[in-house]
Structures are given as structure tokens and as C-alpha cells.
UniProtKB/TrEMBL annotation, chains A, B:
Lineage: Eukaryota, Viridiplantae, Streptophyta, Embryophyta, Tracheophyta
CDD domains, alphabetized: USP_At3g01520-like
UspA domain location: 29-166
Domain of life: Eukaryota
Pfam families, per the entry: Usp (PF00582)
Record-given protein name: Universal stress protein A-like protein
GO molecular function annotations of the record: AMP binding
Amino acid sequence: METTEPDANVTRIMLAVNESSIKGYPHASISSRGAFEWTIQKIVRSNTSGFKLLFLHVQAPHEDGFEDMDSIYAFPEDFKTMKHRDQTRGLHLLEYFVTRCHEIGVACEAWIKEGDPKEVICREAKRMQPDLLVVGNRGLGPFQRVIAGTVSEFCVKHAECPVVSIKRRPGETPQDPVDD
Amino acid sequence: METTEPDANVTRIMLAVNESSIKGYPHASISSRGAFEWTIQKIVRSNTSGFKLLFLHVQAPHEDGFEDMDSIYAFPEDFKTMKHRDQTRGLHLLEYFVTRCHEIGVACEAWIKEGDPKEVICREAKRMQPDLLVVGNRGLGPFQRVIAGTVSEFCVKHAECPVVSIKRRPGETPQDPVDD
């Protein structure tokens, strides 16, 4: 088959990341970290200049009218100037991934949007047109899924770009498997 | 997160490939070629030594008792010794992909199994434990899917490894979109 589109300079991989439901402070969820580590170890590998990672964190709407932040975070220093109020809203989550990317040497961007995670992830994937969307999932059974819902299933079905869903490793499942 | 498993030497990507339903002779389907090109352009990129591609072609059972071939094809020369009877059964399909891999310089293996494609792909993914399974899909609408069924949806749902389904590009859709 002929290559019908020009070879882009880098492969852009979008990762939807979220906070852990276990710890009080906004750490990355087990699934998010698993999806990130899989992307680095299995896809990026040593070819750090061939990829760019796009981290999206979707916040549930806040009563006090918190609005979308259009800021894009690409360097660890970008987080030093953030306001305290933003710190409590998941920017530490993005700082974790941006710092890891800089340690590894892979380019990245990170941003936050507000809304229903599954809808916003698909909307942002449509806007950003990544080559691949990576989402973590808790690997719940059918009964737990009915209760907990899964963002990953929705994205696999509705996102316009290729999507891969990375299951949490069984050994990493917390006491309550709905937690993450 | 700590890396809990040793960094494997290569990322093993399994591609389920099938024959075109359009042409008389066993060429690769449009979806299969699209899934392959996406894997090379977006994932492997220039890092050819970091990946190994595993091509599985599943044949529908034949009346004359054709059995699983346990042969593995890894080099273009491997196809020179094949019997004529095998040529008509999709080995040319594998030869296409193995030859392309050798042109590109990425290691590969290819093999054929008999049975129901969706079941066999998931069984072989379980046996081979690839890091990623790539399947092509025709990008059919909901109504066409009910009639045509889709192997990719089944694999996304049932395979134990991460799965990415690569939609056929709209410009490549044949006259009858159920064809491929």
C-alpha cells in the first residue's frame, strides 16, 4: 500500500489521566500510572525523540465556577508559578507526569479541562487529533462495571482516533477494586 | 511508579491479518494493510530493532480437512518452498507482510491457524502474550455492523492484552463498504 499521508515528525500519544480515589491528596491513579508506564516501556522505548505525550486531566465541575484552564504545561518549571487554588485541583497530577517525561527525555504537554471525563476526553481527542489515545482502566468485572461505569469503554467506542485501554495489573488492585 | 517487570528486549506487536474480499487472489485486505502501515509509521517509526511483529492469519475451516500449519514464516525465502496447495490458502498474504518487514528491517514471525477468526485471535493472543494486538476494522456504521459482525470489537472486548483497532480510512472504502 502506498503511504497516503506524509510521515509526521513525531507520533503524538494522548493520555487521559486522573487522580487516585484512594489517597487524600491528588496523586495519579494506579490506572493512569500504569497506562503511562506501558506507553513509555512498550511504545516510546529508547526512541524518545520520536514521540510527544499529551496529558489531559478532566476535572468534575466545581460549584464555585472553576473554569477551563487554557494553560498548557510542558516543563517542570511551569508548575512553580501555579496558584495555591490550582494545586488542589489536579495540577500536581500533571506535574508528576510532566516531570517524569523530562526525566525520560520525551516531549510533552499537559492541560486540564472541566466536565464529564468520557465526553471531554473524546472531544479533546477530536480537537487534538492524536495518533493514539491511551486510557487506563481498572480491569473490573461486569458487575462492578455496571456500578462504576468505565470511561475507557466509552472512549474505545466513541473516540475518533485509535484507542488502547491498559488494564490495571491484578497485583495492583486496591482493597476495594472500584478504588484506583 | 516503580517498574515492576524487567524491560523486555523488544516490544512484540501481534497483527491479525486477513485476505481481501474484493480481489480473487489472496491479497491482504485494505484494513489489514492499514493496520500494518499505522503500526510501522506511528509506533515502530525508526526504532526497527525495538519491535517484533507477529502476523496471524486465521483461515475459515476447509472441507478437505486442512489442518493448522505450525510452520512459522520469518524470512521471505521461507515462502519459496511452500506447496501450491498452501499458496491458495493465504500464505501469499503472509509473504506480503514478511517481505515488507524485511524491506523495513523489523523482525517478524507469521503463521496461520484455522477456525473462527475472532476466537482464534484471542486464543493466540493469550498463548503468545504480545504487548499489543493490532486489528484492522472497516469502520462500518451500526447497521452494517449488525450484518457483517466485527472481529475487532470482539477482540477489544475479550483479548487479555492491550488491543488497538485501526479504522479503514474513509477514502479507502470500496464500493460496497462491507467489502475489504
